Amino acid sequence: MADDNPLLLADFDFPPFDRVEPRHVRPGMRDLLTRLEGELEELEKGVEPTWGKLVEPLERITDRLDVIWGMVQHLKAVKDSDDLRAAVEEVQPDKVKFQLRLGQSKPIYEAFKAIRNSSDWESLSDARKRIVQEQIKEAVLSGVALENEQREKFNQIEQELEKLTQKFSENVLDATKKFEKLITDKKEIEGLPATALGLAAQTAVSKGHENATAENGPWVITLDAPSFMPVMQHARNRALREEVYRAYLVRASSGELDNTNIINQILKLRLEKAKLLGYKNYAEVSMTQKMATVERVEELLEKLRAASWDHAVKDMEDLKTFAKDSGSPEANDLAHWDLNFWSERLRETKYDINEEELRPYFALPKVMDGLFALANKLFGVSVEPADGLAPVWHSDVKFYCVKDSSNSPVAYFYFDPYSRPSEKRGGAWMNVVFSRSRVLARNGLPVRLPVAHMVCNQTPPVGDKPSLMTFREVETVFHEFGHALQHMLTKQDEGFVAGIRGVEWDAVELPSQFMENWCYHKDTLLSIAKHYETGETLPEEIYNKLVAAKNFRAGTFSLRQIRFASVDMELHTTNDPSGSESIYDVDRRVAERTQVLAPLPEDRFLCSFSHIFAGGYAAGYYSYKWAEVLSADAFSAFEDAGLDNDKAIEETGRRFRDTVLALGGGKSPLEVFVAFRGREPSPEALLRHNGLLPVAA
């Protein structure tokens, strides 16, 4: 059995993604959990409050589960199928049961407390202290201190939450997949750029219209971002925009895919869990593993909201005036499905920039070359293709090796760039495959090297053209690579705090958002922006326009993030899930102070808000803004050094590498930030970068 089940291979350099099939999941996971259960019992029997008798065997157990379950969950995100869903659903309760059993282990908990209280405590490294404190905290949050009925109740809640969040995510994927609009009349999609027409025809071919062409159709529009966004931004047909917008807005909010009740149950269970653990609400539980506190989050969100509001009101007035001057019949009554369309027209007029016309300058291979050249300049590492070294799950996936200045490998990563709506969930993410670890080193090496996934959902190549990206897609790739760099360039050898592990969640977006700033750095951008056919560099005047347009509608975009963060906090602090106010009432109430144009009464965006109902951002969505304060301030260190001073950039880059990218979870994020910046963070740089400082009268 084990011979033929890739999930049970005792040893591999890289996960056998190409061989794992849904039929392997049930037997593979059950066998693994039985073995880990045995190892856990052994550990508990012989546990002593020492690194070798406690932390190392524990790291081996948790790592095995993380790696194998991580493979399964990763395949579910990029290669979903009914069979895989059914298999995961069946073994999930066993996996949760084992995690609870591990998290609630009294012998392990007591051994960590004994290390904390021993006379050797002061001689431990910072990283080891952080591991011990984190393990004690996690045990308490896993219910180690609960007895009998309370523990049983707690475990029931955890099982139920795991099931509900999984179902939430599946409903969003299915609802997104379900909408298809077939268009045969070219007049109906007037305004759509060539790339969008090409994609719509390619989608039509995949749905059985084998003669579809970009020129003559038929075309199929879906709610997948590369299809949905161009319609909202460019389709002149207002009725089409409205139809597609409304479909997007109510995803997973009706019929058998309705997430409303799931959300209500999730919120009830989270509150119940918080109370069992002795907290007032779920946000307090969330904050135990963050830099911030509930009060400081509310304070920051309000500060940013107040700074953004007048700018957003002006954005709306500018849009109305522009639509009126353009002779638009809807100018006096702009609806949600008009905003993206008219902002694109205003941006084109004001800055003479057309997003679509920029695409030929951003061919994926060139963008990656420029990104890797930047990593080399800032951090002294080189990235080389290593396709064929590791098995992959799809032919589009690329594999890379990261080497240091002495040409030794320090890490590897997979990159899965294109959208595949039928099997891959939307969005973009980075995830851990292996963490750097001394304990798990093999083949006579001193450490196991870190390995990461980078997954995006950008426009696939059409015909013989490479993937031509929007500027936003370029920023997304830089963002995800920032996460990957923190994971891959870590110098921590303790697996529990290596890379992004053990980093407080509201600090984890620092390197990713930091990397986005470089998309506006002249040398960096001009090095990647080469026309895919002629090789011509993006003209400098277009670069200047891009920079000028950077803060176009910044107030509006800032408020949008603040609406998401505020509704998340509200649902997890003051909201009573059993009360008379519905989740939609809460959202509408928050929208009154975070959205200039009131949401439609039928707005059900919460039903697809996967970040907080199926991801790790519950009572944590504010982390994007919190970390943006850190990342803007970190980038301002490079501005202070002089962005055109190569030597200063290099020195500052090495300092960033040796602190933010190297220290992982081994020191608190505030200490790491101060080590890099020489002082505590301030929101001034963020407001300045976004053009949101008060306008002088």
UniProtKB/TrEMBL annotation:
| Entry EC number(s) | 3.4.24.70
Keywords from UniProt, A to Z, are:
Hydrolase, Metal-binding, Metalloprotease, Protease, Zinc
Residues in domain Peptidase M3A/M3B catalytic? 231-691
- The record places domain Oligopeptidase A N-terminal at 29-151
GO cellular component terms listed in the entry, alphabetical order: cytosol
Q: What is its cofactor?
A: Zn(2+)
* One GO-annotated biological process of the protein: proteolysis
Q: Which reaction does it catalyse?
A: Hydrolysis of oligopeptides, with broad specificity. Gly or Ala commonly occur as P1 or P1' residues, but more distant residues are also important, as is shown by the fact that Z-Gly-Pro-Gly-|-Gly-Pro-Ala is cleaved, but not Z-(Gly)(5)
Gene3D superfamilies in the cross-refs: Collagenase (Catalytic Domain), Endopeptidase. Chain P, domain 1, Neurolysin, domain 3
* Co-factor remark: Binds 1 zinc ion.
Q: Tell me which family the UniProt entry assigns to this protein.
A: Belongs to the peptidase M3 family.
User: Could you tell me what this protein is called?
Assistant: oligopeptidase A
